[in-house]
Each structure stands twice: as structure tokens, then as C-alpha cells.
Design a protein that fits this description.
Elements lengths: L2 H15 L4 E17 L2 E19 L2 E7 L5 H14 L23 H4 L5 H13 L4 E17 L4 E18 L2 E9 L7 H14 L4 E2 L3 E7 L1 H13 L3 H5 L20 E3 L21 E5 L2 E2 L6 H6 L27 E3 L6 H6 L3 E15 L4 E14 L2 E7 L1 E6 H6 L1 E13 L3 E19 L2
Parallel strand pairs: 7-15, 8-13
Antiparallel strand pairs: 1-2, 1-4, 2-3, 4-5, 5-6, 8-18, 9-10, 9-12, 10-11, 13-14, 14-15, 14-16, 16-18, 17-18
């Protein structure tokens, strides 16, 4: 039994002895190496390790959870959490935790990532690649990550998990207002492509030179995986059954109905090899591939045990971190690794079929005016390239896409053959595996 699994089992035993009727303990260790670079040179190399135990307890319908950081005082802290649960108001939505005899896949990691002693080398390769394509200023980060977890629950869960990955973010400038942003995210050291990532960032930055104020109106959009993942972050959140319940989802009452174009199939699959591969959800249920949207039709919401009971269905093994929310005092189901199934287009073919449009490298600040109906806006950033009569003819700046998210997904008519795994900041989290897509006739306004 791994040390983390032993720790989780010990905390579970203490919680049950103190009077908890249900409990889940998850012991986590995360180790990170970070390389930061700016102005085409390395600024800092850092390393750190974080340890904690996430504890969820229920005493009947009274629930409480905590993130325990004082690992030398776990027994007393666990007893304190149970004591607080006994005094908490009963939860109207708590439906218990998953129980059963669970079988888990054996985690596999690329151990070469753990022995990467000099993470500065791929950074220097990325910088050189970007400069080769005309970049005059290159910045970004490289993260080398190793995570391990052990979980134990009163429902019978007892397992360990481990993952290792790298994510390289390169942002290159050819002019102060002309940039390109690219990523290389992978669970395999051999798949990290630093030079190619730098070359691509430099190419985008060069094509984005001399941007002009973008026009307003209806435009076809060809959006790269980094931009699409920014949109998927909010989209996948709304697939949570809990957000449907509280009126913060555009997918309410849409099971079995079209919510995207027939070209779109969306799955959540934390079982594939990726940065966010994981063996179990936060109740200890073995994870699995869930088809959420099939050929444009919504097939299911994402469920934990509690939401599944209220919806008269079964958990999809998507229980999120066991921290009660102020609204429901229950766990929120969450997507672990969104995947958009690729199509059969080449990106050049998508562009050649656009009369008036924009090619968008990236976006941020996606905000909703109405969560239940899907009205949103997002700000394209980095390379925003103008498309006229099937060709890229220049660059634009200071535009905003202001439309409806359901309309956006229904307006996709082409998906690329190639996909990328994307993760950067909280704007594109959790990691996703997605293609480039073309979206017809989106509303574009000025952002300043």
C-alpha cells in the first residue's frame, strides 16, 4: 500500500471512530519544477512540493469538509472536522457517497519526466525557434509536474494514483502589438516539442505584424485549440448537474435535444493518457469515458452520487473535490478532461472556404451576461488574422466576440484532423484535447 493510500486510510479510520457516518479522505502530493523566461532569457528556475489531505465527512445529513495542511496533526484536525459536522445544519441535497467493490486501472507514468534534471534546455530551444521566425521578445513558462494521490472512503474506495506531465507555454512578439502564443502539453517527455512550439509562436507573431482596428459585424471564425479550450472551460462547467439545478447552465432541460452542430461530439475522458489522466473521481469511483454530446445532441449531465440520486440516474464518476459549496453543501460534478472529437479538415482548407473572417490564436476573459441562456463575450488575444476570400491578408486588434454560446456550438461546420492537448492558467483548465474549428457568422464588436 502506498504511503498516501495509508495516510488516507488512517484519516478515514479516525473520522469514522469520531462519529462520521460517511467519509472520504484523499491524500495528495504535488511536486513542481518551473522555469520562467522573458525578454528571450531565463529569469528563474523554481521547485516546490505541496502535501495535503482533503477530508469530507457526513454525520447523517450534516456534512463538512476541510483541506488539512498540518500533516503532523492529522488526528486532532480530523476529529475537529467531524465535531463541526455534528453542529452543521442538515443538508437538503446530500445523497451519500458512492459504495461498492471498485476495480481500478493501474496508473502508468513516464518516469523520464521525474529525472529531468535540467528543464532549462527545452526552454532555450523554444526561444531559439521563435527567434528564428522573427520574434524579438520571447517569454513564457515550462512546468514539470508530478502528482500522486491516495484515497479511502467509507463506501469501500481504496486506491492510489500518479501522473507526470510537462507543459510549455511560449509567447513571442515581433512588435509590441504583434504576438503569437503556442503550447506543448504532454505526459510523455519524448512528445515535448520545444523547438517546434517556439517556431510556431514566432510564425504567428510575424503574421500578426502591423495590426489594424478590427471591424464590427458578422464574421466566420477559424479558432485554434488554445482559443477553443478557453470556451470549453465554461461550457464543460455548465454540464455539471449541480449548475443545471441552481439555474446557472444553458443546458437545463436539454437532454436529448440538439445543443451543437451535428459535427460536434464532446466527451469527458480522464482515462486517456493526458496531463489530467486520473484513475478515480473524488468519491473514489473509477473514472470512465462519458459521451456528453453525440453528433450535436446532449446525452447526459456530469454527475456525482448525490446529483445522480436527485436526477434518478447513476453517477458518471465526475465527483469534484469534496468541498461543500455555499449553495448546496454537496460536491459539484466537474469535467476532468474534455475532448472534442476531430473532423477531417485541414486548417488551410477551412481558411480557403471563408470569404470574410478572422483566424484567432487565443482568447481570454470569457464572461457571461446570462448563464442560463448562454449570452457571452470573449476577447481574442495574440494573433488575430484577417481572412478575405480564402486568404490571410493582414492582422486585426481590439475586437471582442459577443454572441450566444449555444449558437456558437451550433455554428461549427468544420473540425480539423489534428488535435492538441491544451492547458494554461485557469482560463483553460482542466486540460482539454481539441481540434481547430470553423464557426460561421459570429458577432464581432470592438473591445476598446
Amino acid at each position: 500500500m502506498s504511503v498516501l493510500k495509508e495516510t488516507a486510510q488512517h484519516v478515514l479510520d479516525i473520522a469514522l471512530k469520531a462519529g462520521a457516518t460517511d467519509a472520504v479522505a484523499e491524500a495528495v502530493e504535488i511536486s513542481v519544477k518551473q522555469v520562467r523566461f522573458s525578454n528571450s532569457q531565463i529569469d528563474a528556475i523554481n521547485a516546490w512540493t505541496e502535501n495535503n489531505v482533503i477530508l469530507f465527512v457526513a454525520v447523517g445529513k450534516r456534512v463538512m469538509s476541510s483541506d488539512l495542511r498540518e500533516l503532523d496533526n492529522l488526528d486532532a484536525l480530523t476529529e475537529q472536522v467531524v465535531s463541526l459536522a455534528k453542529r452543521a445544519p442538515p443538508s437538503k441535497t446530500y445523497g451519500g457517497i458512492a459504495s461498492g467493490k471498485f476495480k481500478y486501472a493501474k496508473p502508468k507514468i513516464d518516469k523520464r519526466i521525474l529525472s529531468l534534471d535540467d528543464p532549462s534546455k527545452p526552454v532555450l530551444e523554444a526561444i531559439a525557434g521563435a527567434e528564428e521566425e522573427g520574434a524579438v521578445n520571447v517569454g513564457g513558462t515550462l512546468f514539470v509536474r508530478h502528482s500522486a494521490a491516495g484515497i479511502a472512503s467509507s463506501g469501500g474506495a481504496l486506491a492510489a494514483d500518479e501522473n507526470a506531465s510537462l507543459d510549455l507555454s511560449v509567447r513571442a512578439f515581433s512588435q509590441p502589438e504583434a504576438s503569437g502564443h503556442t503550447l506543448s502539453c504532454t505526459p510523455h517527455l519524448s512528445d515535448l516539442k520545444p523547438r517546434e512550439t517556439g517556431l510556431r509562436a514566432g510564425q504567428l507573431a510575424s503574421r500578426a505584424k502591423n495590426p489594424v482596428q478590427g471591424e464590427q459585424g458578422k464574421f466566420d471564425l477559424v479558432i485554434e485549440p488554445m482559443c477553443l479550450t478557453e470556451l470549453i472551460n465554461t461550457t464543460s462547467n455548465m454540464m455539471s448537474a449541480m449548475l443545471v439545478e441552481i439555474g446557472s447552465s444553458m443546458y437545463a432541460k436539454k437532454i436529448g435535444k440538439p445543443v451543437a452542430s451535428k459535427h460536434v461530439t464532446f466527451v469527458d475522458d480522464p482515462t486517456i493518457e493526458s496531463m489530467s489522466r486520473q484513475t478515480f473521481d473524488h468519491e473514489g469511483v473509477p473514472t470512465r469515458r462519458n459521451v456528453v454530446i453525440k453528433d450535436g445532441v446532449l446525452k447526459t449531465y456530469l454527475h456525482s452520487t448525490s446529483t445522480a440520486k436527485r436526477f434518478k440516474t447513476k453517477t458518471t464518476a465526475n465527483a469534484g473535490p469534496l468541498i461543500p459549496t455555499p449553495f448546496t453543501m454537496a460536491t459539484q460534478p466537474t469535467a476532468f478532461h474534455p475532448v472534442v472529437i476531430p473532423g477531417d479538415w485541414k486548417v488551410d482548407e477551412m481558411i480557403s472556404d471563408v470569404r470574410r473572417g478572422l483566424y484567432i490564436n487565443n482568447a481570454w476573459y470569457t464572461r457571461y451576461q446570462n448563464y442560463s441562456t448562454g449570452e457571452f463575450s470573449t476577447i481574442p488575444r495574440d494573433a488575430i488574422l484577417k481572412i478575405e476570400n480564402g486568404e490571410i491578408v493582414g492582422a486585426a486588434k481590439n475586437v471582442r466576440v459577443s454572441d450566444n454560446m449555444l449558437n456558437l456550438w451550433k455554428s461549427i461546420d468544420a473540425l480539423s484532423k489534428n488535435v492538441e492537448e491544451i492547458y494554461w492558467w485557469d482560463e483553460a483548465s482542466p486540460p482539454s484535447t481539441v481540434p481547430t474549428v470553423r464557426i460561421r457568422q459570429m458577432n464581432v464588436t470592438r473591445s476598446s
